[in-house]
Amino acid sequence: MATIQWFPGHMSKARRQVQENLKFVDFVTILVDARLPLSSQNPMLTKIVGDKPKLLILNKADLADPAMTKEWRQYFESQGIQTLAINSKEQVTVKVVTDAAKKLMADKIARQRERGIKIETLRTMIIGIPNAGKSTLMNRLAGKKIAVVGNKPGVTKGQQWAQNQ
């Protein structure tokens, strides 16, 4: 009798790519839907990230209940995960995310500065389930359209490298 393949190949590929590329980034940005932050996480990817610094972004916060979003932020912060709530379609997102990244990496930046190394660029990996808003966030941070955005899952297939303007 043949073995049933229950783990789709694209998930295995994504897991492998995350593992391979972790060494190239300073921290990981986990993007979830603010309306259902636990259900819109992929625990497998979060586990792979391990001890790498994490920035959890509750995206689409404008569509979520503000009181619940505040509670979720407090919950994740109590777990030691820096969290912010945004709407990645808004221009202010760039400053909010950039400031949060600098805060998250402040110790590393200070250590490098003491060694005479100036960190000009922080590198992050943005991970999340389909339709969490990863491409929209990338476009916003890059200041131009670098990723195709669509109202259905799977429009962007694969990894992309981009630079924040």
TrEMBL record:
SUPFAM superfamilies: P-loop containing nucleoside triphosphate hydrolases. Keywords: GTP-binding, Nucleotide-binding. InterPro entries: GTP-bd, GTP-bd_ribosome_bgen, P-loop_NTPase. PANTHER family: MITOCHONDRIAL RIBOSOME-ASSOCIATED GTPASE 1. The keyword Kinase does not apply. Residues 124-162 form the G domain. Pfam families: MMR_HSR1. GO terms for molecular function: GTP binding; GTPase activity. This is 50S ribosomal subunit maturation GTPase RbgA. One of its GO terms (biological process) is translation. The keyword Signal does not apply.
